Amino acid sequence: MLTLDRLDKVYKTGTFGTSDLHAVRQVSLDVRRGEVVSLIGESGSGKSTIGKMVLHLLDSSGGTITFDGRDVTSLGFRERREYYRRVQGVFQDPFSSFNPIFKVDRTFETLRRSYFPRVSSSDWRGRLEEALGAVSLQPGDILGKFPHQLSGGQLQRLLIARALLLDIDLLVADEIISMLDASTRIDVLNLLVELKSRGLGILFVTHDLSLGNYVSDRVVILYKGRVVERGVTSAVFDDPLHPYTRDLLASVPHLDRTWEDVEAEEAERSANLAGRCLYHEALAAQGRAFGEEAEAADGVPDGVGLVEHTPGHFVGCFRLAADDDCPAA
Ligand SMILES: Nc1ncnc2c1ncn2[C@@H]1O[C@H](COP(=O)(O)OP(=O)(O)OP(=O)(O)O)[C@@H](O)[C@H]1O
């Protein structure tokens, strides 16, 4: 459904916009119907920039974004409206998605007029109440209020309700759990899982590995704007290949294991991999040169500097972690 192919983003920075900040480099990934793909990486790795490009809130600097086979990097006004009918985002900072001078009722009325002009007010009210119920919000507590009178968690759930009303195909969920308390968090995660079972595709942006592990079918690990590893969630979490992914996973507290056990296990893996780079080994085994692209079995190009190590599990050059040289390059 959604395919990013060698997507790039360069921000102009500095007082006169004379410096370049290469925030996203050659990122390729896809999201299919009814699956959650998590984009995981530390702060500044380019996750939100990718989400914003998919939502057409930022222009890309190179590469393509296709949705159901159509390039969506340069949509006209009408096409953009149709795109938003099918693709919506929920953000870490939900305040910016609401007009501060409109009460919530008016925001939803605008949605009805724009997208469902033939639905009567009473039918719409029923649909709205159903959508609010699905995100555990009481219409009476919400509808007569301005955005500033609601909490961040309530606004995030309103955005999910909006997505439910539009019956979208793809949701970009950018750190949406961060503002929620523990009990609401699990409700929203379970709601996402339910939406997924109804066929919604979700690009789930997070820096939290446990959340990525909990909700996603596939994960994409980003480091300094590049994909260093991607694959089926269980493959990446059970057998992380890239040093950066291993560092990320090793830093997550495990309730079932002591820190010493985790450290010993990681030391053993590192010793096994000393002086090696799985990317270059796999590349050599496939008889390909550095940076040579191939169409992977899942139909998404590897992207520059990524190779299919085992079926469905891709890894980048080890030089992309730390600042060391790749031992095998
Ligand atoms: N509008 C902008 N102008 C210039 N640089 C930007 C802009 N937005 C983001 N950046 C830079 O681009 C890089 C990627 O930022 P981005 O917000 O995409 O990262 P992120 O992984 O989502 O981080 P976080 O988890 O902290 O939100 C960072 O170095 C950031 O400082």
Concise summary:
This protein is α/β, with parallel strands linked by helices.
CATH class designation of the largest domain: Alpha Beta
Distance between the termini: 35 Å
Q: Any guess at the CATH architecture of the largest domain?
A: 3-Layer(aba) Sandwich
Average pLDDT rating: 82
What is the overall number of helices? 12
| Tally of separate domains | 2
Give the DSSP E fraction (strand runs of 2 or more residues).
15-25%
Uncertain regions spanning at least 5 consecutive residues: 297-301
* CATH fold-level label of the largest domain: Rossmann fold
Largest sheet: 8 strands, mixed
Order of helices and strands: EEEHEEHEHHHHEHEHEEHHHHEE
Oligomer: single chain
**Helical content band:** 25-40%
Structural classification: alpha/beta
Shape: globular
Full CATH superfamily name of the largest domain: P-loop containing nucleotide triphosphate hydrolases
Q: How many β-strand runs?
A: 12
> Within the largest sheet, what's the order of strands?
6-7-8-3-9-10-12-11
| Computed CA radius of gyration, to the nearest angstrom | 21 Å
Protein name: Oligopeptide ABC transporter ATP-binding protein
Keywords: ATP-binding, Nucleotide-binding, Transport
GO biological process, one term: peptide transport
Domain ABC transporter: 5-249
